[in-house]
Amino acid sequence: MDLSFSRFxxxxxxxxxxxxxxxxxxxxxxxxxxxPTAILQAALPAxxxxxxxxxxxxxxxxxxxxxxxxxxxxxxxxx
Length: 79
Known about the structure:
This protein is mainly alpha-helical. The protein has a domain at about 15-45. The protein has helices spanning about 20-35, 35-45, 65-70. It starts with 18 loop residues before the first helix and ends in a 10-residue tail after the last helix. The relative contact order is 0.06.
């Protein structure tokens, strides 16, 4: 069973969204961002800081590449 499909088929008609929909979406997003609830939520302080459980101690995702890229000054990121 072949479940693959061609993304660039010749007989597919391109459907563009009407510009009114884009204007509507921008208006909805702007009204949500300016709502009293959103403004209050943005002003609230963070209740707790999440611990960085998955961050490696050296801070680099790939230590070998980080050392290669920072040969001239490795003391900035190595502890």
